[in-house]
Protein 1
Amino acid sequence: MTATGPIATAREEGRVVLTELESKELLKGAGIPVVESRLAQSRGEAVALAKSLGFPVVLKVVSPDILHKSDIGGVKVGLRTERQVGVAYDAIMAAVAASNPEARLHGVNVQAMAPPGLEVIMGMTTDSQLGPVLMFGLGGVMVEVLKDVAFRIVPLTRRDAHQMVQEIKGYPMLQGFRGQEKVDISKLEEALLNLSAFVEQHAEVKELDLNPILAYKDSIVAVDARIILADA
Ligand code: ADP
Ligand code: MG
C-alpha cells in the first residue's frame, strides 16, 4: 500500500479513473445532489470526521485501484458510534491488505448515511458512433439481472428526460408500489438534464456511473459515483 495525494488518479489504457470523492465533487458542481463525503487519512481523522458529520456514517475505501469497493469488504454502513467507526476503519485496512496489497490507498471516505430510499442508477457511456449516451434505471436486481434501463443520446431534451424515466418497466415502483413511497420524479428528470449538460461541457468525460442514487418523496441523493476521463 502506498499513500498518494488526494487527487492522484489511475492511468490505464488511456483512461483516468477518478475516485468517488473526486467524482462527487465534480457532480456536486454540476447540480447533482451528492451525500456529504470527506477523506480521512488516519483512524483518528475518520473518527473526528464522523463526529463532525453526525452519526450514523458510512466508511469506504478510497483507492483508484479498487472500483467495486463492497466486493472486497471496503464499505461499512450504519456506523453509529466512535468505536464502530474505529473498528470499521481497521476492518477496511485489513480487507485491502488481504485482497489488494498493491492498491494505491488515498485513505477512507467518511460520509453521511443516507436514509433508506428507492435505489436508482444513472450512467453515461461513450458510443463510437453516437457519442455520449445517458442511461437511467432502477438499481440492484432490476439493472443487473433484468437490464431494465432506458437510453438517450446527449444532449437530452426535457422531453427525453421525462420519457426515459417513464419507459422503464419498473416505472410503477417510482410511483409508489405496495406501500413503497412515491418518489420525486421531477428531481430525477432534473438530474438527468444536469448530467447531460455536464457531459456536453466536458468532452474528456468518457464514462460516468451514479450507482446508486437514493430517491425519496421530495429529494434525491447520489451515494456512490465514478467518473472516467480520457487520458489526454
Ligand atoms: P461499490 O463500490 O461496491 O458500488 P457503494 O459506494 O455503492 O460501493 O456502496 C455499496 C452499497 O452501500 C450501496 O449500493 C448502498 O446500498 C450502500 N451505501 C453506500 N453509501 C451509502 C450512504 N452514504 N448512505 C446509505 N447507503 C449507502
Ligand atoms: Mg456503487
Protein 2
Amino acid sequence: MTEAKTSSDAENASSDVFQITKILIAYDGSQHAMKAFTAAKDLAKKYHAELVVLTAVEASPPYFLPQVPPGDEPDNRGYETDKDRKELTELVRLAKADGIDARAEVLDEGGPAIKQILDYAEQGGFDLIVAGTRGLGGFSKMLLGSVSSSLVSRVHCPVLVVR
Ligand code: ATP
Ligand code: MG
C-alpha cells in the first residue's frame, strides 16, 4: 500500500518536472543535424509537441568591423538565407506530413550562430533543444562542436545531443 502510493507520487513528480510541449531543433544542413532532426521529429510526434526548426546564419568575423565600405557588401547573406529557408521549408513539410505542428525560423541577425541560437532559445520557452554532436565544421577532432557544447553548458533547458 505504502509502496503503491510512493510510486504514484514519483510518477506525478516526474511528469511535473519534464513536460515536452515545445522542441527546438538546431539545424545547420549537416548530416549530423539531419539525424538530430529525425530524433526531434519523432519526439515531437510522440509528445504532441510543437517543433521549431532553426538555422542561424553565421556572419563572418570580425563581427564588429565593416569589412567593406557600406553599400559595397556582396549579397551572399541574402542568398544563403534563401537557401536555408528553402531547406527548412522542406523539413517542416516532412514534419507536418507526420501530423506535427512545425515551423521554420532562419536567424540572420549578425554575429556568431551560437549567440543567435542562445538568445532565441532563451526567449522561446522551449522544453527541449536538440542538436547534432558535430556540424559542418568537421575539421577538429573534438567529440562535440562548439555550438553543441555551448548549448549543453549554457542553455536553460534540457539538451539532447544526437550522435
Ligand atoms: P565547429 O562549428 O565548432 O567548427 P562543428 O560544425 O563540427 O564544429 P557544431 O557547429 O557545434 O559542430 O554543430 C553541432 C550541431 O549544432 C549541429 O549538428 C546542429 O545541430 C547545431 N548547429 C551548428 N551550427 C548551427 C547553426 N548555424 N544554426 C543552427 N544549428 C546549428
Ligand atoms: Mg559548426
Protein 3
Amino acid sequence: MDKLKEECGVIGVYVKDEKLAARLAYYGLYALQHRGQESAGITINNNGNLESIKGMGLVSEVFSEDDLNKLKGMIAIGHVRYSTSGDKELNNCQPVVAKYKHGSIALAHNGSLTNGDGIRDMLEEEGAVFHTTLDSESILQLISRQHKRGIESALKNTISLIKGGYAIVITTKDQLIGVRDPHGIRPLCIGQIDDGSYILASESCALDVIDATFIRDVEPGEVVVIDNMGLKSIRPTHWGQKKLCIFEMIYLARQDSIIDGYSVFEFRRRSGEILARECNAEADMVIPVPDSGISAAIGFSAASGIPYMEGLVKNRYVGRTFIQPTQEHRVRAVKLKLTPIRQTLKGKRVIMVDDSIVRGTTSKRIVEQVRKAGAVEVHLCITSPPVQYCCYYGIDTPDRNSLIGAVKSVDEICEYIGADSLTYLSLEGLREVCDNKSGFCRACFNGNYPIEVPISEIMEE
Ligand code: SF4
C-alpha cells in the first residue's frame, strides 16, 4: 500500500508460572502484528534450555495450540518480522539462538544498524560463521564473545560498538534483558503483571492485551535486566539526545499505544487539527483513508467544522502475501483493500485525510476510485510533510529517486495524483504537534540524521 514499513516488533516475558510465558508472548505478538507480517517466532527458556518455534506467516499461522502447550519455561522472547526483499527466508526468522561457552542465548531485534556491514566484515575476518543475513546475529556474536566478564559488561561493550536504531530483547540462562538504542529511535516499554513478573514490548498495546500494567519506557541507551531479584536498570554510558522515530507516531504504531509519553491516537488527532488550519480547501465532508487516517480525520473535522464521514471501506482480510510485485497485481490489491462508498461520495466535495505519500502510486489510485464513485472534488490532506529522504534506522523505504516527495514539487505531486488540491502538514505544524519538543527523529522529512549514515549509501540513492 505504498507506505513506509516497520521492520519488526519484539516482546519479552518473565513470569513465575512456566506454563504462561509462551502464551503471553503469543498474545503480545498478536497485538504487535502490524509491525511485521512475514514471519513470527517465540523462544522459550526453561532453566537455560532454549526451544524455539518460528515460521513464515502471521502469528495465527505460525503457532498452534499444541505448540503453546508444549513450550514451558519462565522466560519467553518473541518477534514478528517484516523483511526487506531478498531475505525472506525461514533461516532469517527471529529470535536468533546460539550456544556458546557460557550456555545458550537468544535475541530478538527491531531496527537496523548503520554500521552493520562493517561489524559483520570485522567478525567474518576474525573467523565468525553466520547462519543468517541479520544484524541480529552480529549483535549476538558480539555479546557472546565478550561474555566472559559477565553479561552486563558484554552488553556495554556491544552497545559501544553498534550504531543505529534498535530495540532488543535477550534471554540468557536465567535473565530477560531489554536494550534500547542510545537515541531511543526504536520504542521499547516495560510492563508488570505482578510482583516479579515483567513484560518488555515494542508498544504498550501488547501490554494491554495481557493485562500488564505499563510501568515506563526503556530510556535511550538503557539496559534493563530482569531475573529472580527483580528489575535492574543499567544506565547508559553511551547515549545521545532522545530521537524517537516520528513515523511511529504518524503511521507505524498502533493508535492505542502510548510511546515516550505520547498517545499515538492523540498525536494523530492533533495532526488533523493543525492540518485543518493549514488547508484552504472547501468541502462537504472529511473522509479518512482507513485505518491510519481515521484519528487525524476526526481532528480535522472537529477543527474545521466539516462533517466527518466514512467514504472508503477497508477489507481487513487482504494480507500482505497477496500483494505481488507486478504492476497489475498492485492495482488489484488497492481495489481489493479499499472500496469507495458511492452513496456517501456521489456529488460531494471531499477532503481525504491520509498519513503519508511515499511513491504516490496508491494515493493516485485512491483518488481515481473516489472520483469514479461520484465525488466532484477530491482534496488530499496528508498528516506529514513530504517524505524526501531514506531511513537507515529500521524502516523500509524505497530508494530516494522513488520517493515522490524527493523528486517532485507539491504542485507536481498534486497533478500526478490527480487531486484538486494537495496539502501536506508543514514541518512547523508537525513541530507544534510534538509540543515543539526536539525529541524526535524527523530525518526522512529534513535529512538531519541523528546518527551518521554512511556517505556511500546516500550517494547511491
Ligand atoms: Fe523514523 Fe524517518 Fe527517522 Fe527513519 S528517518 S527513524 S522513518 S523519522
Protein 4
Amino acid sequence: MPTTTWNRHHVISLADFTTAEYNTVLQTAASFQEVLSRRTKKVPTLQGQVVANLFFEPSTRTRSSFELAAKRLSADTLNFAASTSSMTKGETILDTAKTYLAMGTDIMVIRHQEAGVPDAIAQEMDRLGVRVSILNAGDGQHEHPSQALLDLFTICTLFDRDHPNIETLAGKKIAIVGDILHSRVARSNIWSLVASGAQVHLAAPPTLLPKLFAEYMYSEKKDTLNGRLFLHWQLEPALQDADFVMTLRLQKERMTAHLLPSLREYHQLFGITRQKLQLCKPDVKVLHPGPVNRGVEISSDLMDDPEFSLIQSQVTSGVAVRMALLYLIGSGKT
Ligand code: CP
C-alpha cells in the first residue's frame, strides 16, 4: 500500500477533497487492483471489522461491489434493505443506524433517496462520540462519491495503470451529457474532474440543465470552477474534440414534471452514437455509471463496443476503489 496520511473519518462529498486525497485513493485502489488479479484475491486487512450496507433505495453495482470489497478485505458484512426491515413497522432511520451501531458496526455504507441522510447520520454518530464511519453510497440528487472516484480511477489508469494520478487529466476535455439536474453522479464527477485540471463540459436540454444548476454549483466554489466548467444546451459544442464522454440515464423516478420531449427525440438530440462521436478526438472513450437505458442515452451497439466503451471497466474498477475507501477509513480503527 502507498504510505500516506489519511485523516478523513466519513466520505459524504467530494467538494472538499484535496489532490493528495484523490491520489491516495487512486494509488491505494491500484494496489488492490493488483491484489484482485491474483489467484487468492483476499487480504486480512479488515479482519474482525463489520461493514453494514444500509440501502434505502435500489442498487445493483454499488451495493454488490461494496459488499464484495468488504469481503475481499476480510470484514464481516451486514446487508439491509428498507423494504424487508423493521422500518416497515415504523422504526426511524436514526434508530435503524443506532441498532447497527449496537451490533458493533465499524463502517456504514448508506444509500438514500433523500439528499443529506448520510450526512445527518454521520453528524448523529459524531454527536454520540462513537467511531463508526459513514460512506455515502448515493443520496438523492446530492452526491455519489464512490462512483466519481471509480470513474476517475477508470480514466487515470488508462494513462498509468500502476501509478494513476489525478493530474494526468489536466487539460483534457470531458463532456458530461444527459440528465444533469437529477444526477448525484454528475455533481461528484464535477468536483473530481475540475480538481484534476480538466475542462468539464455539461450538455443537456435546458429542462435538465437549468440556470439554477449553474448558480448552485458556482455558488459553492466560484473561483475554482470559473474557466473549467462549461454549460451547453446543445450536444455538439460539448462533444467537439472531447477526450472522454460521460453519459447519464434519464432519472424518471426523480422527475416531478414533464421535462422531456419523447425518448426518440431525446435520443436524436442527446443520445451518444458512433456517428456523433466523430466530433470527438479519434481515441475518445465513453463512460456511463449505470444502469443504462439502451437506445436512449447511448446506442446499444456503442455501449457494447470495447473500442469506445469503458462501462464494464467502470464496474470492475468499482471493487478496487471501494476496497481502497474501506481500507483507508477502516485501517485507522484496528
Ligand atoms: N451507478 C450506480 O449507482 O449503480 P447502482 O444504482 O446499480 O448502484
